[in-house]
Amino acid sequence: MTTTNRAKPGGTSALTAALDAASAGGPRRYVITGGPSSGKDDLIEAILAAGIPCMEAEPGREIYRKHRERLGRHLLREDRHEYSLEVLQAFISEYSAHKRGIRFYNRGIPDGYGWERFFGLGPTPQLEEASRLYRYDTIFVLDPLDTFEDPDDIVWAKDREIRRVHELIVQGYYDAGYEPVFIAPDSAAGRLDFICTNLRLPKLTRDR
Amino acid sequence: MTTTTATAPTPAAGNGAGSLLVSPNSVLANALLRSIDVLRPRIHAARPTRIEFVVGTQINGAPHLGTNLVQTAAFLLAKIARREFSIDTRVRFGALDNAPHEVVLDPETHTAYQQTYHHALGSDQISELIGTYYREFFISLSEATGTDYLVETYTEQQAGPGFRVEFLRSLERLEEIRWWMAPSHGVVHVRLPCPDCGWAEKRGDRTRLARLDEDGAVFTAVCLDHGRYEVHVDPEDPHPYLDLATLYRNLVKERALGRDTDTLHVMMKGGDWAFGCQLIDGALGALGTPAAQMPIRIFTPQVLAHTGAKLSKSLLREQGKGVLPADVEPWMLDTTTWPGTVDNYVDALIWLVGELLGDPKHFFRSFTVKELGRLMSARPTDLDTRPRAHEMGIYKRYFDLIAAGVKTTEIRVNDSSRQKIVEGSLIRFRCRNDEVLTRVTHITRYLSFDDMFDHESVTSVNPTATREEQLANIRQIYPPEREALGVVAIGIELLDPPRPQAATVHRG
């Protein structure tokens, strides 16, 4: 359950002014990523609540559901190729549709490296090319909110998988030539403040 | 002068030469003469009619020595507290059936989902599981300590209106408690399993509190199979299932129990909990919990590997059994492998915990598993052959009359511990380091002491005092509310050879 500080939609006047000023310039694209249980959903919610342009849902989730309905089961390793290309196309469309000002992305194109590797697959040529062509300005990686060290024997191995997903995603960004900015565990509001400071935007909590 | 019923205080064991145990002093131990005194200030302030020792345990595996040590301490302290404070006591065993039985990763997002033991196995199998690991053990502990107990699963606890009301109250103050509940990031995990399949997000990643008002709370969450769902938490409805993470669960439980002005709930916890309880206390403070409702806790000795790490499943899982000395006996890690009967194991544990409780310096400290092994091997050799008996402490003058075979009726109030005594039961009367074994020849319950003396022989209770003297003295010991429990007259016959009667005649 989340307990984020809910900002008023539209954010503060200082932030709105900064966003307006940015929208006069070229596109600036920032990725929020991280493994499961890193607090990404909470942060995206806080970004949206602050009135900062942001991609709400990961495109992958909707596409996954579509494939699952078609196949009548969860996706297996052999289904990944077709699914990945469709997800990549959605990311490219999202990327290309943004023309001016600031926009946050709920995961980015290089996330594909990590997910492919998790399933024992190599990156597709399409992913390699897209990573080269469509570049983001800053990558924010959310550190996990948990140590994934459940005291229970049965669940321990599963929790370790979560850690592995996270590490593979991070590695994917390095492989794509990025130097991610890591965001330590904190409340969603605290993390958004950290991001604003990093991007030289007015802090939400201080302005309020 | 008393007639029969009062108990002589047990002298605290010291650190003298030849002692089985040597323990350094500590701030807490220095303040106490007896371990049970740690409860005394609260008993004086609250004047409860009952004390309940609350001990919660995971049921997802065979218990190790540390687990059984906490439970034994609960039963033994219940027995000691009953004697010390003349207040009825019992043990409440909380079976944590919300432990994760299985975890899967959502194939779409790799978010972890979990199913509790309750959801995976159902109530009947949970009951079987409790039976496998604990039923015989508790029955034996209960018999050996004369202490009643009740078993409550977490599932039953969370379904109760008291728990739910307290949870809803905590939601109103979530901003004030969330950093106490999750100091690293302030994100509190609440799991509300999908009503269709019982699976829940392990870390509540997409669980949201959508509404909170006088009708309760509405949460939204996402199931890995059934998509988005909504649940309504209402105090009067035992559904939906409310699976709170450890700290939050303890906060809600302790707040709810703290409101009971009739029963004082004493939380029994392994010593490692002392650190975590700082956070719960911070949250209780943030919620404005009155001092009289703050939980009272007793931390039991931690059982440690030789490195100082707590003996736990996670330690053994990560480090393997190599983390323990080679001579650690298998039963210490899985107590169901004890090479003997359950009664035999319980008697040994009661002896061990009794030794620890004998001096606060010994009880409020930690022990390596090897040291506990040494102590266990030093237990009296006749422990295994001694018959199981109810134990009663008694003053020397009455002890002597029983040992001489001239006192053949013992009088007590009819509290829960006496209700188990039947004709043929054995009673071991204890006085200081001496004891005498008797068998119950008959047992009769009366409404009052007057009623009892109308039917029982006055001289069989105390051959040295008149009925009036005895009545006056008994009523100095037992206030009317204790007498209101009823009176039990226990006919006894001496099983040990009679000892010569002391020359001094006591009256009253």
Task: Offer a concise description of the structure.
The complex is a heterodimer of chains A (208) and B (508). Chain A has 208 residues and is of the alpha/beta class.
Describe this structure in words.
- Chain A is an alpha/beta fold and 208 residues long.
- Chain A is 51% helix and 10% strand.
- Chain A contains nine helices and four strands, in the order H-E-H-H-H-E-H-H-E-H-E-H-H.
- Chain A has helices spanning 13-23, 40-49, 59-71, 80-97, 111-118, 125-133, 153-175, 188-198, 204-207; strands spanning 27-33, 101-106, 138-142, 181-183.
- A four-stranded parallel β-sheet of chain A has the order 2-1-3-4, with helices on both faces.
- Chain A is globular, with a radius of gyration of 18 Å.
- Chain B is α/β, with parallel strands linked by helices.
- Chain B has 19 helices and 20 strands.
- Chain B has helices at residues 27-31, 40-46, 65-85, 117-145, 154-159, 161-172, 174-181, 246-258, 273-286, 313-319, 330-333, 342-357, 360-363, 369-377, 396-404, 449-455, 458-461, 467-477, 480-483; strands at 50-58, 88-96, 100-105, 112-116, 148-153, 190-191, 200-201, 208-213, 216-223, 227-233, 243-244, 263-270, 296-300, 303-304, 367-368, 390-393, 409-413, 426-431, 434-446, 487-494.
- In chain B, the strands form six sheets. Chain B has a five-stranded parallel β-sheet, with helices on both faces. Chain B has a five-stranded mixed β-sheet with strand order 16-18-19-20-17.
- In chain B, a hairpin with a 2-residue loop joins strand 8 (208-213) and strand 9 (216-223).
- Residues 1-14 and 504-508 of chain B have low confidence and may be disordered.
- The chains are: A alpha/beta (208), B alpha/beta (508).
- Chain A binds chain B through residues 1-3, 35-37, 39, 41-42, 58, 60-61, 64-65, 68, 74-75, 118, 145-146, 149-156, 158-159, 161-162, 165, 185-188, 190, and chain B through 60-61, 99-112, 114, 174-175, 178, 184-190, 202-209, 219, 312-314, 317.
